[in-house]
Fold these 2 entries.
Entry 1:
Amino acid sequence: MDVSEVPVSQVDSGTKWMKRTPKKKNRGGNGEKRGPQRKVEEEEDEKKMENSEGVFPPNFSVSEIKNKQRRHHMFMKIKQEKRKLKLQVKKKKKKEREALGDKAPPKEVPKTIENQRVYDETTVDPEDEEVAFDEGTDEFSAYFNGLTNPKVLITTSDRPRGRTVRFCEQLATVIPNAHVYYRRGLALKRVIPQCVARNFTYLMVVNEDRKMPNGLVLCHLPDGPTAHFKVSSVRLRKEIKRRGKDPTEHSPEVILNNFSTRLGHSIGRLFAALFPQDPQFIGRQAATFHNQRDFIFFRFHRYIFKNEKKVGIQELGPRFTLKLRSLQKGTFDSKYGEYEWVLKRHEMDACRRKFQL
Amino acid sequence: MGERSRLCSVWLGSETGILKGVSVSRKQAFNFCNTSHLSRDQELRALCWGDPAESELLVGAVDGTVKTFSTEKGEFTESRRCGDPEDGCFTGLAALGGSGLLTCGERGPVRVWREDSTEPVAELDAGKNVCRMRLSPVHPNRVATGGKENGLKIWDLERPEEPTFTAKNLRDDWLDLRRAHWVRDMAFIPETDKVVTCTGFHQIHVFDPSSPQRRPVLEADYGEYPLTALSLPAAGNTVVVGNTHGEIALLDLRKGLVRGCLKGLAGGVRWLQCHPSQPVVASCGLDRFLRIHGLEDRKLLHKVYLKSRLNCLLLSSRDLEDAAGEAGTEGVGEEVKDEEDEVWDTMEQVEEKPKRKTGEEEEEPQKKRKKKKKA
């Protein structure tokens, strides 16, 4: 019987028959073939278990699965489950909070690298006599005592192209009493004495690379200091959405945020001294230097008080980001000048929670 | 004040005119000045010990006054005028034996002052733009000067008419262009006649007055920024140099090779000094920090924020770490001890834990052994 049936089934039908026929035979009680057949069945059962529940031994990782499709499938599944669980916990917590009402414990503050900041010993204490004296007699003291008015010369690296030119023009509309000059291939060290002779208090040099502004040298005159910044993410007025009309010539208010260390103070004073000391509030314009994680974000806004509570702001542009590279004592002299602070990469920024400004 | 000043083992002069003392072992810094009349005219440019016992400190200010600070009393005891403000600020200050004083201004007059006389006893002209003057620690009559466009000169104070050694111009470079002198700092190498200088063109030169060669016998180069300060460690054959970018390097004086760099500085170095006996170097500069590095492993040992830009630095020759063990310091010492005691009293005793730990430690290896046996 056996011998005759098997070839028939192979010829006649596909795999279905193959599976069915041996089972029948097993039921019929063929002792010899039973062992291997059972094993197959057990394996199938195990697979079913995996599919339905996704239970693994504790030290099993998805990456051990050799089949790529299967691995991907399992990975997605685990991820979904985790997400579900997370949502559940979140919902539960929310319900608990609602149930407790006012007695609910205060919400946990999320950990960011700013609030986990490593304490900097140079953080300026406003009551410190020595620092106050140091700041009171530094190079900016003439400006802060109201003896000088800022006058800024803006120039570029040699032969500026494209966006750099427009960037300079727009900077000149932000900073009152600023004059844009073509560089004409002049050396900065020869420009500086001429600037001093003409009572400029700042020299601002925008460097460009492939038509994009990428550096800014800010030199306080007549006797320093000089700061060198990296410039990034420049967006000119044209590229800003929902911007207001061009700024007026009123001197803006200056907002300096987060300059807390001794170096930060020096940089903050450097920026503050760019603008006239008495803002014209009628212009309703504010220039913001916001320091966050050692990046200084510049924004220029016009504000309006809509009613007693609401304030509307409108960005005027340009916007850009600065990062301090070095602060040098004295006027620009990159070769022989003495540096007060130099950014040393991989040495200073090795700790992500340590900030310099 | 006196108790505080006796604690200090590092002294620093700042740009704001404050004399600062740092006790390294206590990790404390003190200001020694009258905070009510601070002024930039009082900016300290030079520091040196007034006597070999290191009880008096001579402080040179920008306006041409030299003040004596007593570390015993912790206050300024004396102030005298040495030279005009026209001579420029002090580039060097040294105490001579027998209460004599040696000063050097930026514009070149090196003067010897005796006590009770307002006029200098001897004077010599070191040329213009002097960047540094140093007195030889071994021969108290030998003085080295040097500056911008002003090569190294070694003088004998007995014969102030002309220098005993002047450096010859450097050999022209490979483009046959003149190489200028710009000595920023120098030091006498002990046990030899040699003098090592560092220049504003990032070179290190060794001159040997005993040999007929008046050009440097060794030329080395470090970095690409002007070297501003230099110091010789107690263990010979090396020199520590610092530059305007806050890079400090150890150079070998035999071949002029860089042996290692000291990290951690942010701003230009103004003054470097190695401890006379220990292998440590202290640096200060524009970043307002005093940093003490170990020379053997080149690790940063101490870092103290001192709030003002620092111009000069002086180490006392006693051990840096042990300042508390001295007899006169008990007053302050007790206070600190009291605070510490309170802290210790409030803490719970943790005697049991270590025992357990030791027990575990004993047990652990046994377990391991068992495992091994099983395996």
Entry 2:
Amino acid sequence: MNLLANLIPAAAEIFLLVMVCFILIADLMLTKSSKIFTYLLVLLTLVGCMLITVGTHQNGVVYAFNRMYVDDLMSDVLKLLSYLAMFSVLVYSRQYLMLRGLFTGEFMVLALFALLGMNVMISANHFLTLYLGLELLSLSLYAMVALQRDSAIATEAAMKYFVLGALASGLLLYGMSMLYGATGSLELGAISDAIAQGVQNKSLLVFGLVFIVSGLAFKLGVVPFHMWVPDVYHGAPTAMTMLIGSVPKLAAFAFATRILVEGLQSMEHDWSGMLIVLAIASMALGNLSAIAQTNLKRMFAYSTITHMGFMLLGLISGGIEGYGASMFYTVTYVMMSLGAFGMIMLLSRAGFEADTLNDFKGLNQRSPWLAFMMMLLMLSMAGIPPTVGFYAKFSVLNSIVQTGHTWLAVVAVMFSLIGAFYYLRIIKLMYFDVPESHAPISVGTDTGLLISINGLGVLFLGLMPGALMSICAVSVQQSLLLH
Amino acid sequence: MIFGLPVISVTIWLPIIFGILVLATGDDKNAPLARMLALVGSVLGCLVTLPLYTGFDNSTSNMQFVELHDWITHFNIHYHLGVDGISMLFILLNSFFTVIVVMAGWRVIEKRVAQYMAAFLVMSGIVNGVFSALDSILFYVFWEAMLIPMFIIIGLWGGPNRIYATMKFFLYTLLGSLLMLVALIYLYNLTGGSFAILDFHRVAIPMTAQIFIFIAFFFAFAVKVPMFPVHTWLPDAHVEAPTGGSVVLAAIMLKVGAYGFLRFSMPITPDASHKLAGVMIALSLIAIVYIGLVALMQSDMKKLVAYSSISHMGFVTLGLFIFNAYGMEGALLQMLSHGFVAGALFLCIGVLYDRVHSRQIADYGGVANKMPVFAAFFMLFAMANSGLPGTSAFVGEFMVVMGTIKVNFWYAFAAASTLIFGAAYTLWMYKRVIFGAVTNHHVAELTDINGREILIMTILAIFVLGMGLYPLPLSEIMHVSVNDLLVHVAHSKLPL
């Protein structure tokens, strides 16, 4: 295989890396007042990545670098969505960061490094590449959480995130080494083949699987490995929370499917049992705890735990339907979470964080349009039609029922009912209560436009979900080699 | 076709589009424009439903005015609409009541007029969708979407305890809906990949599955009807809702539940329906008798009418689950009639509330001295609520009792007791509010109803009397569909 054939599948990542290095240096030359050029350059980089990813798309599954790297439809779709989500994060957070003096080159470079890490994870076909991508992502995120140096709560969050994240990485690495011991390979396809032919030491394999699933659960933030989620979401500046709560979920989905489906398909019986426990526990604990929260970021943290639990249900049911449903769920979740955190940042002002429930009181009187957008987002999170969140839940439920786990579907909808309460409470606060402050809401053109696109997008996809659903199903179908 | 557009789609989307236009008029500076636009929208919305009536073919039970387009191909979900003799009249009823509600809220609502009017218009379109959807997911989308405007209406313009009421309303109904969703998905997999309601009607289902599906549907529909013991949200929601909200709840929302039994529970799970009919009849009779007694005890007029609604809806579910033509047609007529009567009663209470700002019976007395015209209208509707022959309510109740007596005398005996209880609680309330000497200065200052209110009352009175004296045109429409449904339900769907 010649060099070019190896480089083309990774062209977008290479471009991204080059640009990050360039921006890192170029940013040093710029004065503090002209950081906007760095910002524009970062946005341009994202657009460039999009074009390259589309331009270098090849039909079928293409491997590169001795099968360490894979380029398929699923990775391309997920990457495109990651660029789009990262773009939104940057646009949403510009004003917020500027008001807090965090609008620095470091933030943007770290964001791009995190993106690079995610892209590598999405395209990994080998435990080492997976791990490298994951660590690049995690380290960038730890640093971002700690970026607000003078905030005690942010520093504490970063510390917690780092310690628990490192522990999780350790677990993953340990699990990977056990699988390597049992199968003699680190490449996902080879592992899958080895297991299918039968390995001698089955208990080693199962132990490895347990560690891998634990590490995965840590990174996804599902119960009982969720402790870091509320603290980090709460402690980090909202822009960082938005980043942590949205884009990496796409990579995490790819991470989970690559390992569990492509690598360990033949052990599905073992891991699906574990995931059922994780999923039910997450939906139960996430929903019940979210009710008690008064801080919106904490509430969304618990809501993330729930949503990730729900997403796992799709993986449990398996098959094209199930994985496609999971992917659709993840994509729509990212969209809703961007909007929700975007709204918190829109309502925040210099020196004031609009991150408690009370800050949303009477929003309908202060700005009917923003209240309407938030209502759409909350209804979508609760899974009520005609918003896209309904179809996300619907397709996952469908895949569960299809595999005969109807009871699991009933459990899932009962927890959704509990979940609906705290989303409705926000609508209640916005529409039925009297505002606590009448401070004018200053919405920039860019953020205003984006939140409108985001909110109406949730509604539009709720009316016409077919295309996105098919994209997810087709990309899963063409990419995962199901046995 | 209306101007080349399919009729049912127009009845759904025209009110929604007008709703959005009304919303776009912005804040209360443009309130007159918002009111005008809402009136135009609702009247047009009502007019476009007329072709459904004039073009309807009484001689077939097939779906008519069918529209079928692909929607979500990945799950084989279609934009599939159509009406038959069971659903068509409810679309007319709903669109008609939207006009009434817009007129009733004309002067009364002064805050956020555009949002109020828009919510009702949007809901009108959505409810038409519920009654005409032939694809179960399309039905589900309309069914759930219906909750959102109602949630806002009760929560924004309701009484003091509105937030508790609206949360209860939303979560109660969502509980049932989510179970129904699982049942629909289960059926989808059973039919081999179709969400069409008519395919669900045909597919064979084992008994255990039928029972589970029936229970899931029961939660969804019984909450909406509402049946005893899941009725407790209704009095709260009614008392706290603004007049328009109460009217729509009573006239439209409650019918959606009974419609669900007719369209889903009975034809999809006929064996389970027969098996569990005893439970359904028992719950219906409890609603009729026990809730009737509860109504007698109420000191709040709106609560009284709310409990009376639950009792009357008990008649509807009773009529459905005795499985004969008298019962079922009686139930359908009762649904229509209850829409007019309960709607009119809530409007009457609204008229008093707007003037005195109290719903307590004790705060009134001698209203007839000050409001003679109003007292006359109120009298007519109160009589209708007690099932006086010659009014619309009599027809339905009489038919249901006739149907029931064929099945079991004692059932019919218990059901017929409502004629006494109904008369007792309604007329006693009427006596305390309207007759006697003027009791306090609030009543002394009352002014009689104005031209707008007289217009609304007259229209409703015409319908109540018209339906009571000559119900044939209505029963003709439903006759073939009802008979076909009964034949369908009589056949077992257990797999051979």
